[in-house]
Specification:
This protein folds into 2 domains: 135 residues, 2-Layer Sandwich (Nucleotidyltransferase, domain 5), CATH 3.30.420.10; 71 residues, no CATH class. The protein is 31% helix and 20% strand. It has 6 helices and 8 strands. Strand 6 and strand 7 form a beta hairpin. The radius of gyration is 21 Å and the shape is globular. The model has no long low-confidence stretch (mean pLDDT 90).
Length: 238
């Protein structure tokens, strides 16, 4: 459903993957993932500076907060073997991708992405699956027709106004007496914000323009938005 090569695996790249899949296919019943730190906080592993009173799953990673807003469950596999049905198609694609890139002397990510696109297309629309005995796309479409799919139509639920309010990075900040909030030494004025209250900043970075849209929320009330340079925000792992 989604296959993109990136130079660096980050929280934001995974949120973009969620956005692409959910907007196209709808809300799934659940996501089945490993215990990577992007997906799950595990006490004793994730940070030397962690709060030692926080236990596993008490901290909520950015990626999981997106799925919480979508009311999609997350299930964690504790070993690669537990995700056998998922790992097999990945291995099929990965093996062919590496060999093809080597044979074609491909040295950049853009050309490799073209090969990946071809392999995903072939896997989804041409290859008969060894377990189901069917082509994956045909099987998926039949499940939809027969109403056996667990995907639900994507909708923007109140109080959210846009998909940007869902597929974003989130931080909490306290409003100072000048109705300003500070993030990484950058001060932002929020005229509608209540004094001395905590508000949420929902941040949508755009790499192409180099700008981020910062959307301000107080509880369930939208307070407005601003655009700032990504470099001024200095977000980690964007």
């Amino acid at each position: 459903m989604y296959a993109v090569l990136v130079e660096r695996e980050t929280t934001w790249e995974h949120i973009l993957a969620l956005e692409a899949v959910l907007l196209k296919y709808g809300f799934p019943l659940a996501y089945y993932v490993d215990s990577h730190s992007i997906f799950r906080f595990v006490q004793g592993r994730d940070s030397f500076w962690r709060n030692h009173y926080k236990l596993t799953d008490e901290a909520n990673p950015q990626w999981k907060q997106v799925l919480d807003d979508c009311r999609v469950k997350v299930t964690y596999a504790l070993s690669p073997q537990a995700k056998g049905k998922i790992e097999r198609p990945y291995r099929w694609i990965q093996d062919r991708l590496v060999r093809t890139c080597y044979r074609e002397n491909i040295r950049n990510i853009q050309e490799a992405q073209l090969i990946l696109n071809y392999l995903v297309q072939k896997y989804n629309y041409q290859i008969v699956h060894s377990t189901t005995g069917e082509i994956p796309y045909i099987r998926f479409q039949r499940a939809i027709r027969e109403k056996r799919s667990l995907f639900r139509e994507f909708t923007i639920r109140p109080p959210f106004l846009s998909s940007k309010d869902i597929f974003c990075l989130r931080v909490e900040r306290m409003v100072n007496p000048y109705r300003k909030v500070s993030i990484n030494n950058l001060e932002l004025k929020v005229p509608a914000a209540p004094l001395h209250e905590s508000i949420q900043l929902r941040i949508v970075p755009d790499k192409e323009s180099g700008l981020s849209e910062v959307r301000f929320w107080y509880k369930d009330e939208f307070l407005g938005s601003q655009k700032v340079k990504n470099t001024d925000l200095n977000l980690v792992q964007v």
